[in-house]
């Protein structure tokens, strides 16, 4: 199975130095878009398109950001970073800060 679809010769020539398909396959890692597409289906479609759900763009982005951080195990680090940023904002504005 090739790294890219037929007809993408220019892309292959330009990016050959960054393509390590054989080494990735030897390590049993994916080189195709199927993994990304499956993640999209799981992370986005199943969550955002449940029966009766309607989302604004901002609300949808907020829930997808939260879900991706939670699913990837990065939520705690992101929350700590957000709280540090908010504390700095409040301090700069002369506010009481975040407890």
Shape: extended
Helix count? 5
Uncertain spans:
none
- Please identify the structural class as seen in this structure: mainly alpha
DSSP strand tally: 0
> What pattern of helices and strands is seen along the backbone?
HHHHH
The average pLDDT is 82
* Helix share bin: 55-70%
Rg, rounded, reads 21 Å
Tell me what portion of residues adopts beta-strand conformation.
under 5%
The major beta sheet can be summarized as: none
Taking the alpha carbons of the first and last residues, their distance comes to 55 Å
Give the tags.
63% helix, 99 residues, mainly alpha, 5 helices, 0% strand
Model description:
The protein is mostly helical and 99 residues long. It has 5 helices and no strands. Helix 3 (34-48) crosses helix 4. The termini are far apart. The mean pLDDT is 82.
Tell me briefly what this model is.
63% of the residues lie in helices and 0% in strands.
List the helices and strands and how they pair.
Elements (H helix, E strand, L loop, with lengths): L8 H7 L5 H6 L7 H15 L8 H16 L2 H18 L7
């Amino acid at each position: 199975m090739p790294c890219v679809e037929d007809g993408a010769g220019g892309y292959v020539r330009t990016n050959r130095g960054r393509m390590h398909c054989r080494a990735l396959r030897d390590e049993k890692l994916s080189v195709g878009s199927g993994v990304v597409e499956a993640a999209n289906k799981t992370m986005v479609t199943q969550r955002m398109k449940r029966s009766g759900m309607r989302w604004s763009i901002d609300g949808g982005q907020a829930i997808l950001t939260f879900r991706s951080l939670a699913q990837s195990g990065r939520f705690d680090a992101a929350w700590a970073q957000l709280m540090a940023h908010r504390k700095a904002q409040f301090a700069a504005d002369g506010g009481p800060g975040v407890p």
